[in-house]
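User: Predict the structure for this protein chain, please.
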Amino acid sequence: MRKAGEMSGKTTLKQITLALAGSAMAIAAYFGQAQAQGLFDPVAHVDQAIVTEYEVQQRVRFLQVLGAPGGSRQEVIEELIQDRLRTQEARQVGAIASESAVQDGMSEFAGRANLPLDEFITALEQEGVSRETFRDFVGVQITWRDYIRARFGSRVQITDTDVDRAISGATGSSGLEVLISEIIIPAPPPRAAQVQAQAEEIAQSSSEAEFSSFARRFSATASRGNGGRLPWTPISDLPPVLRPLLLALGPGEVTAPLPIPNAVALFQLRAVRETSTPEPTFSAIEYAAYYIAGGRSPEALGRARGIAARIDRCDDLYGIAQGQPESALDRGSLPPSEIPTDIALELSKLDPGETSIALTRANGQTLVLLMLCGRTPALETDQDINRDGISAGIRNQRLNAFSENLLEQLAAEANIRILP
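Assistant: Here is the predicted structure, written as structure tokens:
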């Protein structure tokens, strides 16, 4: 299920559909087959409501245009059934979103594609997606989001203890360790909107197996072969921006897509445990980044691995970079909050003297050989903490749990029939 209000686009829909270029004959055959069995024939009944073949075709095409996963015929039928359940439930209490709210949502969607709403709709229509399909997609999301907030908002009480637990874990003062899985999807500018759409679908993963399957398909990190699974990690080793997000999750839940340079990251929390000794916090982390032309080409990767095999500490990189422009090597010591998120994520997996070649720069054209030099323990933990932001994150996660549980209940009580 998509989270209400999480929508994305891109500068041109033509770019979104690069993977679909040349598929016109296949699409025409698909639509021709559907017309033969009747565009407006029902494919599913949800109590007194129906889902038509036309709606299925349109949603499939819409997801194809966005380049989003979850666009198989069966998945789309199930999603449209859920849309009927959401709409029926909200309509019973008169909670259907107003036309102005829907229009605002559509404009926001188009704005993320850097297009005015009219141009975005025209581009969709050129790809075979009607304005009504787009409008219905946005309308159901907004209606359900507002209904869940109105129905369950008063039942979500975030206590100081909840926030304190998240803060203590985020600062490392409680000795918490987390077991997480990661997905890092490269997102150079031409593919940014397509990747965002993929990430929003992945964020709805409901099991570890499903998230791991997505990791094997889409992730660019070394952990993809293990389904994105990482070992137990002290919470204090992770980037500060990530700590409260993880501690607001329950086991099996997934963060919203997290933009990082030229990529989008998602994390699934698998477990949390408290250790006997509090983990230290760090005032600074020293690292070095050596830049190699060629991106993730075999030649660049081979050179990076060769260099990594010859060096034991960050000082050794000065000899590697000798005679090259100063920009070929960066070395510095920064507070954890000032380190770019993608670099901080990789550094959290390293011990001093270890290297990573997972990152790129210059839209993927430059490979980064990253080495952790060392971590400086903090003498104090007096930090500016946004308690309101942490509380809001916990609230959103709990509201989403109410939403999922209610949908399961509605599906169990409804008379749902999927026609052969």
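The chain has three domains: 13-154+400-418, 160-279, 282-377.
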